[in-house]
Amino acid sequence: MFHWDGGLKLTTPDLAIDFRRRQPRAFISHAHADHMARHQYALCTPATAALYHLRLGKRPVRELPYREPVDWGGVRLTTYPAGHCLGSAMLLAEDAGQSLLYSGDFQLRPSLTAEPAELVPADIFVLESTFGLPEYRLPDRDSVVTQFLELVEKTLAGGAVPMVVAYALGKSQEVTRILTGAGFPVVQHGLVYPISQVYEQLGMPLGNYRRWAGQLEPGEVVVVPPGHSVDLKGPSVRFALTGWAQDPRAKYRLKVDHALPLSDHADYDDLLEAVQRVGAKKVYCTHGPESFVDCLRRRGVDAWPLNRPWQARLF
To answer: pLDDT tens for residues 151-196?
Structure first.
């Protein structure tokens, strides 16, 4: 049903899945740079299509709205929300009585800026397993958000500017919605703002935010992508909200003052729950530690890593 060709491909339609190199036909699970390229023809959700066009220019696209099956290239394809960012999707492929669910990046915890993930049964489950280590059991989301907002308030009260370092697509919009929902106006870096405008156009309001124009008003919080900043006149305190913050050393690696474990990826327990809920006969893990495959095997799951040379054969 699928094979490995420097990346996952559905065999019957020769459909590349989340390839970073240009393909004749490719499915894009979401519009992060490490999951897409300027393909000759792409399949994705309507929201991902809008973000894809913004980031890589207008491209030929077939839109696949959530939960609306289509017959394409000899297989039946259906997208389901992945909970990772706006438009992110899992892909269910059905071919000759066999089904495969591809997760891409996903999370099971609620998001303010993405539809909740929907896991569906499948014979084969291809699972993104970034946080596939037991130490990445993340704390309760609400407690992390409360801590974050308290630190923002303390920073402002101390006369410094809170500066949140977050990926331009997804995390920046989530952080903006958290902040504006708590009454903090947000100023976004120029790389973040156009993406937020697409969110707004697609019916995802983000609250009281604006584009950086060279100066700040009292009480505003700045959101910038990694590797970027804005020219502030006074002191600032840098924040990062990421699952990697579960490691106490993360703030030094990320070069921030505060790293808080708020993620848009499934944590260790959610990965285990996802495998249980899908109930697949075979599970293939990607973008994660091989020890997670061993963990699944100890639990009686027929699990394999999905990025090894021997997987060039068909499955």
So the answer is: 999 999 999 999 999 999 999 999 999 999 999 999 999 999 999 9
Tokens 């899992």 — which residue?
Answer: 90
The amino acid occupying position 51 is L
The span from the CA of 169 to the CA of 151, in Å, is: 23
For residue 64, pLDDT over 70 is answered with yes
CA gap 225, 191 in Å, rounded? 7
Give the mean pLDDT of the chain.
95
pTM: 0.94
Rounded Cα distance, 183 and 135, in Å: 33
Do residues 83 and 116 lie in contact, with contact meaning Cβ atoms separated by under 8 Å?
A: yes
State how far the Cα of 199 lies from the Cα of 44, in Å rounded to an integer. Answer: 16
The dihedral through the CA atoms of 2, 288, 261, 218 has a sign that is negative
> What tokens were used for 278?
């899908």
Tokens (6 digits) for 307: 């990025």
